[in-house]
Amino acid sequence: MNVRRSAAVLAAAVAVFGSAAAPAAFADDAKPSPSAALPSGLYGKSDPKFDGVFRQSYALLAQHTEGVEPAAKAVDWLTGQQCASGGFAAYRADSSEPCNSKTAVDSNSTAAAVQALAALGGQDKTVKKSVDWLKSVQNKDGGWGNTPGLPSDANSTGIVVGALVAAGRNPADVKSQDGKSAYDALPKLAMDCGKDGGAFGLADMKSGKLAPNAYATAAGVLGSLGKGLVVSAPKKSEDAAPKCAKPDTATQAASNGVGYLLDTLGKTDDHLMSSMPGSTDQPDFGTTADSVLALAAAGQGERAKKSAEWLAGNSADWAKQSGPAAYSKLIFAAHAAGLDARDFGGADLVKQLNATGPAPETSSKSPSDADSDEKKDDDGGVSVWWIIGVGMVAGIGIGFLYSGNRKKQQP
């Protein structure tokens, strides 16, 4: 299978599973087979085949954001997943076996791990190896695809930018062999004003053309602004929506994307709706949380807070069904909106997250203490079915994380 066809399959998988309820196999109540016992250091009870590293990275980063010191074995499990090349695959059942050409390392798992491990500290060598690997698979246009060789997309490029920043690298200085950085690639992934509304696009499987997509837009805005998953609430909120203009720079592309998110959120009571066929009138909790981060990063504090408050009042069932990555995304949203993750619509998100894995070393710090601390301081051989699986996780882990409860709601 050639790269272009693989890219199309990935795009389709992300488009479908990124905007729809995750299949039951990806919900947290989907147990792995009895013969595949879960590692004791891993967060979540669902089969980790497609999202183990991702959900672990989110969980550890969310705990750190709230002043919780994760369990040592949870951190050890994550670092043990790294390949000698520096890249991370979605999950390796036997990390004692060396990675080979069939190990499906990917940019998204690697970038998520970098953001978590860089925040925790004490993992400089692991982080550097991963950043070096990410640099080695950078596309000529300056961006990243999900796996080496795939065309750049806004979601992968956005999360890699967050990893570079977390590792102390200036994304503008990380350039391809053609001298391009992520800030050159992202405007090319942005749509025009008018009918496309300035959104970032996701490639259509059949035509290969970009189509406006809220999931891609939230990631594209964060990447274009040089932000990662942890965004501080803005001290002063912008009052007006930005004006859309030609996206000839990353800054303008981000501004346009913010306008698109504001418009889309405003149509449905400050939250996004699923665009999956057959999921009429179903909320998209995960991408709403992503949008909170993007809006806060752009200074739209009041609008970010409104969407976060909607999540606080409506996301409990979704988070319970979806597991640690969902709790983590809500914690990131609460942090970006200036809300209390320990009293989020009456729920203690930190306690709920901690309960999905090994007990943390300590959780004595308050969010304000954590904020004070923050101020102080082989790729290849990828089959089409693996790409489809990773595409599913792109929807689950990065953007949408839907509930597996098909009877009550399929966000």
UniProtKB/TrEMBL annotation:
Extract the Gene3D superfamilies matched here. 1.50.10.20
**Which stretches are transmembrane?**
384-402
Looking up Pfam families in the UniProt record yields: SQHop_cyclase_C (PF13243)
Q: Where is this region: Disordered?
A: 354-379
Keywords (alphabetical) are: Membrane, Metal-binding, Signal, Transmembrane, Transmembrane helix
GO terms for MF: metal ion binding
Q: Record's SUPFAM superfamilies?
A: Terpenoid cyclases/Protein prenyltransferases (SSF48239)
Record's signal peptide: 1-27
What protein is this chain from? Answer: Squalene cyclase C-terminal domain-containing protein
Q: Which species does the entry assign this protein to? A: Streptomyces venezuelae
